[in-house]
Amino acid sequence: MSITRSAALQFRPDAVRSGTHVNLSAVRTDGARLWIGGDETATVERLTCDDPARPTAYGQHVSYPLGELVDLPGGPEDEVDVEGLARSGPFLWAIGSHSAKRKKPKPHHSDAKAIKRLAKVRPEPSRRVLARIAISPDGEPVRETADGHRSAALGEPGLLALLADDAHLAPFLDIPGKDNGFDIEGIAVHGPPGQERVFLGLRGPVLRGWAVVLRISPRDSDGELVLRELEHGGRYAKQFLDLDGLGVRDLCPQGDDLLVLAGPSMALDGPVRIYRWPGAAHLDTPDMVRRDELVLEAELPHGDGDDHAEGLALLPDGDLLVVYDSPAPERRPAPDTVRADVVRLGGDEG
Fold it and tell me: What is the pTM of this model?
């Protein structure tokens, strides 16, 4: 195993009450700051580390409601299900899962009620968020910075409208994410402001063992993001990755490479791996990325019903910070604290 140490993440009491600290789904470093997303709220969280060169703890928690920064498709308190964060130039990018949701039976339900709940699937418009948040020089998310960088969200047509006739993805748009349905769980941004290429990793669907990554190119148009046409004429491109049957759980850029956190598309505990996708940011990357074109960097631990790795963030020394959803009790040394893992790339099992 290539885990070298842990880092403690400390949250404010209100985040503990809402369960944000045990529902971590996205993470990105930003110098001494750490941006975190949870899958049960409509906020992004900012923590600050003790030592930027070798962080062992993050605190000074501040929570920022997304609805105060951009117009959301749902209500300001509706769950956005933030599943990916990216930091590029003057912006923090956030992506919602875009997935439908199936009712979950609970232990106290009768068989009849449990079966009835399993039949209920509802769309979740509040999850259909792609937001680009302007960050001020002092690290505050704002609607507009002093030098004119504006926060914006994707307008119409949204991603689901564009994919409605897609031969590979359209059949999965109404299927809940945990049923191998359409589910975005990672975002990476490459390129200078105004020329960004945005990669979206799909947890599902996994098609005959192949995971899917979408590439789009959002641009600001009067305070709203629109998707411009790509080099081939469409407004999105698809690439298929052989991740040994796993889906994408996060994407993390390192130079021109992308690090891919891979895990099961459905409600399973593991396996969980980190792959390197060399040269992914280049436009000449093949549409079919075969297993021998990827590098296995690490195998990550997983629990039995807990410890689900959900986010990767690159630390200044080149190690990776990994955060977990549903952390096991040993990851929670105090009610307001959870422990993330620090992973050495190219470790013993890479």
Answer: 0.95
